[in-house]
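Consider the subject:
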Amino acid sequence: MSVGLSAHQSAKRCGVKIQRPRLLIIEDDLEFRDSLVNLLRDEFFISVADEGCEGYSRAISSRPDIVTLDTRMPGWDAVRTLTAFRENPRLQDIPILIVSDDSSRESVLPTIQAGADGYLLKENCSKANLIDRLNALLDVHVRS
């Protein structure tokens, strides 16, 4: 594998055809959600939900490989959504990256305790950074 590339990126670079991972984006901010879709659509098959309960339902009907999740949304917030994923045997092992504009301890700690696999501030959501974080979580998941 090339240095600095995920297994997925290395295989792609070598011309090996592999299926793109399925990403579920759970985000209530339409503008930010659309920007995530635009950043990631070449690397992932994407589905979207605008709140946690809808995202959970989508994951049950079509299991994603990875999820990005906002912290504060109408309906189910991140902690409630994480709890539902982690309590469901079919979904409990899906890596979930929190993508939020809130870096306060009161926001970060409960999501990590509820089972989030990572936390990324929205201000740090460059295409390269986001793809690197998602691929790193996918690689850890595949190896475990």
